[in-house]
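Comment thread on ticket #2218

A.B. wrote:
> Attaching the input chain for the structure job we discussed in standup.
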Amino acid sequence: MNARTARRAPGGRWGWLHRLTQLTTGRVGLTIFAAVGLTALVAALWTPFDPQQVDIANRWAPPGWPHLLGTDATGRDILSLIMAGAVTTVWVALGAGLVATLIGIVLASLGALTARWLRETVAVLVDILIAFPVLLIAMMVSAVWGGSLWVVIVAVGIGFGVNIARVTRPELRRVLHSEFVLAGRAAGLTPLQNLLHHLLPNVAPVFIVQLSWGMAVAVLAEAGLSYLGFGAPVTQPSWGVLLSELQAYITVHPLSVVWPGLAITLTVLGLNLLGDGLREATDPTLTRRGNAARAHVPEVVA
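C.D. wrote:
> Ran it. Output below, let me know if you need it in another format.
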């Protein structure tokens, strides 16, 4: 079997991606994630109307042409606001995911590959930080340094990076005693080279699963903090800000509140489904269990 065939094989290095596409949760999660990303990409270049354009003459226009989702109290097009808010959501999710990954890798590496006294110190630090909910950390940081997207990204990244470190640290310890890692040491690889070439690639699926869940938390945190006034400024399109502005009119125009709430719900649902699908696709125990179950299904004889 050549290298190209090995890459395509369901049990190869990228076999988890093939298994993910075979799962209903994986397909639905990927579809929603791709739809939100495509919407953000389109909105960065074009929206039906200027999201901040005020048109008092068309305030509270019902859904129809040309305002497909209607307008708000100042005549702004809700569809354009939703599309522009997707850009903010994607930036927060990707930024918080990057910060969480960096913090998770550093803490997990220090907690698994260093001297005993440092490993135990990092473990205690992680246990202390993990006692604080991610949203609470984000609110405290936002209250001190003011509300902005960068504060939300860093706060959520720190909070969920600790969770990633706690989950991946035992995986690093397990892979550390594998034969290929010992062979790399014997071949003269430095600890950093072993980490980059052997350890991290073998715990990457765990990182990916935790990262998808962390991005869902980041989306929810940004919307919640923006709703409370700690997140995105009112001049920047955000689903949380839009929801906060429209909820005052929920008894008069209830349909207008549905759209930002639905966008937040679907995005968080899609990322959670993607995380569940990734967990099942990358867990060899679940994969073997599923194969064994299929092997015991009796065939229908014609």
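A.B. wrote:
> Thanks. Noting for the ticket: The mean pLDDT is 81.
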